[in-house]
Predict the structure.
Amino acid sequence: QVQLVESGGGLVQPGGSLRLSCVVSRSIADFNIMAWYRQAPGKQREFVAHIQKEGYTSYSDLVRGRFTIARDVAKSTVYLQMDTLKPEDTAVYYCNAYMSMMGDEIEYWGQGTQVTVSS
Protein backbone atom coordinates (compact mmCIF):
# COMPACT_ATOMS: atom_id res chain seq x y z
CA GLN A 1 0.00 0.00 0.00
CA VAL A 2 1.31 3.41 -0.97
CA GLN A 3 1.26 6.09 1.70
CA LEU A 4 1.17 9.83 1.14
CA VAL A 5 1.92 12.11 4.08
CA GLU A 6 1.22 15.82 3.82
CA SER A 7 2.69 18.48 6.08
CA GLY A 8 3.23 22.22 6.18
CA GLY A 9 -0.28 23.45 6.82
CA GLY A 10 -1.17 25.98 9.46
CA LEU A 11 -2.59 29.40 10.20
CA VAL A 12 -1.38 32.31 8.09
CA GLN A 13 -2.51 35.89 7.58
CA PRO A 14 -3.93 37.05 4.24
CA GLY A 15 -1.10 37.82 1.85
CA GLY A 16 1.18 35.33 3.55
CA SER A 17 2.83 32.17 2.26
CA LEU A 18 2.99 28.50 3.10
CA ARG A 19 4.74 25.52 1.55
CA LEU A 20 3.06 22.15 1.69
CA SER A 21 4.98 18.92 1.33
CA CYS A 22 3.79 15.46 0.37
CA VAL A 23 6.14 12.56 1.02
CA VAL A 24 5.28 9.37 -0.86
CA SER A 25 6.31 5.87 0.25
CA ARG A 26 6.93 4.85 -3.37
CA SER A 27 8.96 6.64 -6.01
CA ILE A 28 6.89 9.45 -7.46
CA ALA A 29 8.50 8.66 -10.82
CA ASP A 30 6.16 5.65 -10.92
CA PHE A 31 3.09 7.87 -11.09
CA ASN A 32 1.66 9.55 -14.18
CA ILE A 33 0.39 12.52 -12.22
CA MET A 34 0.99 13.98 -8.78
CA ALA A 35 -1.63 16.48 -7.72
CA TRP A 36 -2.95 18.69 -4.95
CA TYR A 37 -6.65 19.04 -4.19
CA ARG A 38 -8.45 20.94 -1.47
CA GLN A 39 -11.77 20.80 0.31
CA ALA A 40 -13.32 23.72 2.15
CA PRO A 41 -16.05 23.20 4.77
CA GLY A 42 -19.37 22.45 3.12
CA LYS A 43 -17.83 22.26 -0.35
CA GLN A 44 -16.73 19.51 -2.68
CA ARG A 45 -13.11 18.61 -3.08
CA GLU A 46 -11.58 20.61 -5.91
CA PHE A 47 -8.48 20.42 -8.06
CA VAL A 48 -5.66 22.80 -7.22
CA ALA A 49 -2.61 21.81 -9.27
CA HIS A 50 -0.84 18.85 -10.80
CA ILE A 51 2.52 17.90 -12.23
CA GLN A 52 2.82 15.19 -14.85
CA LYS A 53 5.58 12.61 -15.11
CA GLU A 54 7.09 14.62 -17.97
CA GLY A 55 7.16 17.72 -15.77
CA TYR A 56 4.23 19.60 -17.26
CA THR A 57 2.17 21.50 -14.72
CA SER A 58 -1.44 22.65 -14.59
CA TYR A 59 -3.30 24.90 -12.18
CA SER A 60 -6.82 25.82 -11.22
CA ASP A 61 -7.80 29.29 -12.37
CA LEU A 62 -8.35 30.15 -8.71
CA VAL A 63 -4.67 29.69 -7.83
CA ARG A 64 -2.75 30.23 -11.07
CA GLY A 65 -0.05 32.84 -10.57
CA ARG A 66 -0.07 32.43 -6.79
CA PHE A 67 0.64 28.72 -6.25
CA THR A 68 3.51 26.66 -7.63
CA ILE A 69 3.73 22.88 -7.70
CA ALA A 70 7.14 21.24 -7.74
CA ARG A 71 8.71 17.88 -7.07
CA ASP A 72 11.92 16.29 -5.88
CA VAL A 73 12.04 12.79 -7.33
CA ALA A 74 15.08 11.81 -5.28
CA LYS A 75 13.16 12.61 -2.10
CA SER A 76 9.88 11.24 -3.48
CA THR A 77 8.27 14.50 -2.42
CA VAL A 78 5.85 16.90 -4.06
CA TYR A 79 5.52 20.50 -2.92
CA LEU A 80 2.92 23.21 -3.18
CA GLN A 81 4.25 26.70 -2.67
CA MET A 82 1.36 28.98 -1.85
CA ASP A 83 1.88 32.75 -2.00
CA THR A 84 -0.44 35.72 -1.65
CA LEU A 85 -2.88 33.57 0.28
CA LYS A 86 -6.49 34.63 0.56
CA PRO A 87 -9.16 33.68 3.12
CA GLU A 88 -10.91 31.70 0.40
CA ASP A 89 -7.85 29.43 0.20
CA THR A 90 -8.80 28.06 3.61
CA ALA A 91 -9.31 24.31 3.22
CA VAL A 92 -7.88 20.90 3.91
CA TYR A 93 -5.27 20.23 1.25
CA TYR A 94 -4.82 16.69 -0.05
CA CYS A 95 -2.03 15.11 -2.02
CA ASN A 96 -2.97 12.68 -4.78
CA ALA A 97 -0.94 10.16 -6.75
CA TYR A 98 -2.36 8.74 -9.97
CA MET A 99 -1.11 6.00 -12.23
CA SER A 100 -2.47 4.25 -15.28
CA MET A 101 -1.00 0.86 -15.92
CA MET A 102 -2.14 -1.87 -18.30
CA GLY A 103 -5.62 -0.42 -18.50
CA ASP A 104 -6.02 -0.03 -14.76
CA GLU A 105 -6.25 3.31 -13.05
CA ILE A 106 -4.99 3.56 -9.52
CA GLU A 107 -4.86 6.55 -7.24
CA TYR A 108 -3.84 7.21 -3.67
CA TRP A 109 -4.69 10.01 -1.27
CA GLY A 110 -3.02 11.49 1.75
CA GLN A 111 -4.80 12.29 4.98
CA GLY A 112 -4.77 16.04 4.33
CA THR A 113 -3.29 19.09 6.00
CA GLN A 114 -5.32 22.08 7.20
CA VAL A 115 -4.59 25.52 5.79
CA THR A 116 -6.33 28.46 7.44
CA VAL A 117 -5.96 31.98 6.08
CA SER A 118 -7.25 34.52 8.56
CA SER A 119 -6.29 37.74 10.25
